[in-house]
């Protein structure tokens, strides 16, 4: 009992001494000149760091000077959620925006250990609650603190942190929902929706070798960061896709985006007011993206003047005419030189990889300046459906590798031309009950009709040629008889 009382008394004495020390310390700080306090703090920090050999690095959720989210924080969070969150005892489960998958991250004040090249580092999660002024609500700022022994300072700051950020960004890239950006309807900025086009190179009707060549080219481009840096060129590649309507140009762009896991920027040139706006829109595009300008030949007159189209094209391209009208209303002034400047110049100022794709139905009409190699590195023709292409579609639409009707289809395909879009339409069962054979017969019928139409057209053109020749002969005869007179 006496011993217990003695213990209590000595604890009481200790408490009083601490309180007196705090009081004294407060007095000193209040009445001492600030220079003296600063010098004291400096020395105190030095002494503490001498006995306390750990370094701490904080990475906060928002930039310190504004409320912009900090990229590095998001990357660290992604890294920790995949590599270390499982070691934490208290976890936070959240869904990524627009996704249904739960992502786990460390809850506040959790601590996990990571090991890198035999060096152990600790990550601590925390939260600061701040109030900028008494009139503003409290702000929560989450942060991650990295703690390690000072003898590993260079290794952690130069190598480890860089690798964490890189790995985190890769994880973010994998988890993100890809986007399709558009600037249509006379908008001056990009708006986006989630990009969920199901097309793949596997589902594209095209000759196998040609398809493989394009896939190899794209994959090589994606892995060529060091190569482009070595040769001192911007990391970009231009593709020109050309061919009649309905041959799969848009489908191929979707397949490219899916293969590379890139976003798509569908640039509607007719909605862009002038070169300045074009430059701004393009500067806003992000890395790992495909910038698409469809129907480049008729989106705009690239010299800045309005363009007159021949009548037959007008009929074929009613849709594009409408968008051209929009241009006239919106007064677009994008010029060929503006576009070329951007292709050549702007890229070099943008970091990261980008692909630009132009599509056209009329490749011969394009200005050679636009399509020359270096600007458009790869020219890809998408043409009428081959038998190889048909087999891809039959496999996808009807799950058929072979069928006795295939032989007649092959013969008919050699004799006539049909676009993949028409083949696909015929192979699409019109009801759940419609079987594969019926679809194949529908296609045979369509091919026969296409063949008849082709023969008729050939006859008509032969006839008009004969008529023209006859007229020319009559004219020649007349001229000859005049000469004789
Ligand atoms: N090569 C192809 N492989 C698979 N499907 C195709 C192919 N070509 C066309 N299709 C089918 O036809 C439809 C129209 O094709 P798509 O829009 O890609 O053609 P396009 O060449 O871009 O036409 P346009 O020049 O009019 O823009 C697609 O939805 C797709 O189902």
Structure explained in plain terms:
With 485 residues, the chain is of the alpha/beta class. It folds into three domains: 35-175, no CATH class; 179-381, Rossmann fold, CATH 3.40.50.300; 387-473, no CATH class. It is built from 17 helices and 13 strands. It has helices at residues 2-31, 34-51, 71-83, 153-175, 208-222, 225-231, 249-260, 275-283, 296-299, 311-316, 318-330, 336-349, 368-371, 387-398, 406-415, 420-427, 436-484, and strands at 54-60, 91-95, 102-106, 111-116, 119-130, 139-149, 179-182, 191-194, 236-242, 263-266, 289-293, 354-360, 378-381. A seven-stranded mixed β-sheet has the order 8-7-10-11-12-9-13. The longest helix is centred in the last third of the chain and has 49 residues, at 436-484. Mean pLDDT is 82; it is low at 303-316 and 321-330. Adenosine-5'-triphosphate is lined by residues 204-206, 245-251, 361, 382, 420-421, 424. Adenosine-5'-triphosphate binds at residues 204-206, 245-251, 361, 382, 420-421, 424.
């Amino acid at each position: 009992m006496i011993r217990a009382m003695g213990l209590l008394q000595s604890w009481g004495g200790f408490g009083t001494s601490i309180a007196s020390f705090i009081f004294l310390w407060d007095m000193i700080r209040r009445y001492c000149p600030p220079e003296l306090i600063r010098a004291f703090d400096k020395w105190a920090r030095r002494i503490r760091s001498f006995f306390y050999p750990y370094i701490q690095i904080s990475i906060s959720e928002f930039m310190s000077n504004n409320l912009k989210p900090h990229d590095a924080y998001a990357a660290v969070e992604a890294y920790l959620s995949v590599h270390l969150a499982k070691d934490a005892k208290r976890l936070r489960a959240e869904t990524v925006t627009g996704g249904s998958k739960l992502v786990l991250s460390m809850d506040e004040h959790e601590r996990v250990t990571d090991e890198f090249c035999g060096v152990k580092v600790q990550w601590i999660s925390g939260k600061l609650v701040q109030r900028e002024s008494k009139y503003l609500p409290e702000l929560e700022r989450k942060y991650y603190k990295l703690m390690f022994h000072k003898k590993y300072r260079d290794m952690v700051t130069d190598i480890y942190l860089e690798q964490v950020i890189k790995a985190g960004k890769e994880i973010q890239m994998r988890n993100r929902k890809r986007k399709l950006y558009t600037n249509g309807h006379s908008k001056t900025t990009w708006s986006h929706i989630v990009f969920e086009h199901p097309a793949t190179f596997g589902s594209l009707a095209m000759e196998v070798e040609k398809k493989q060549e394009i896939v190899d080219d794209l994959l090589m481009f994606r892995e060529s960061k060091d190569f482009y840096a070595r040769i001192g060129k911007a990391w970009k590649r231009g593709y020109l896709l050309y061919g009649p309507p309905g041959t799969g140009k848009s489908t191929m762009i979707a397949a490219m985006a899916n293969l590379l896991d890139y976003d798509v920027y569908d640039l509607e040139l007719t909605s862009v007011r002038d070169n300045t706006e074009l430059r701004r829109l393009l500067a806003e595009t992000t890395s790992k993206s495909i910038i698409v300008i469809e129907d480049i030949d008729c989106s705009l007159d690239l010299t800045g003047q309005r363009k007159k189209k021949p009548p037959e094209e007008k009929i074929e391209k009613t849709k594009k005419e409408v968008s051209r009208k929009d241009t006239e209303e919106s007064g677009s002034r994008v010029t060929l030189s503006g576009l070329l400047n951007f292709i050549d110049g702007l890229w070099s100022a943008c970091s990261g990889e980008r692909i630009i794709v132009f599509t056209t139905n009329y490749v011969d009409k394009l200005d050679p300046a636009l399509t020359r190699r270096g600007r458009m590195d790869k020219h890809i023709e998408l043409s009428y459906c081959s038998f190889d292409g048909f087999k891809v579609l039959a496999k996808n639409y009807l799950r058929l590798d072979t069928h006795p009707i295939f032989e007649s289809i092959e013969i008919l395909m050699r004799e006539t031309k049909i676009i993949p879009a028409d083949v696909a339409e015929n192979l699409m069962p019109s009801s759940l009950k419609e079987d594969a054979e019926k679809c194949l017969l529908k296609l045979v019928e369509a091919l026969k009709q296409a063949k008849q139409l082709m023969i008729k057209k050939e006859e008509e053109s032969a006839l008009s040629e004969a008529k023209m020749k006859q007229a020319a002969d009559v004219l020649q005869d007349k001229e000859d008889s005049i000469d004789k007179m």
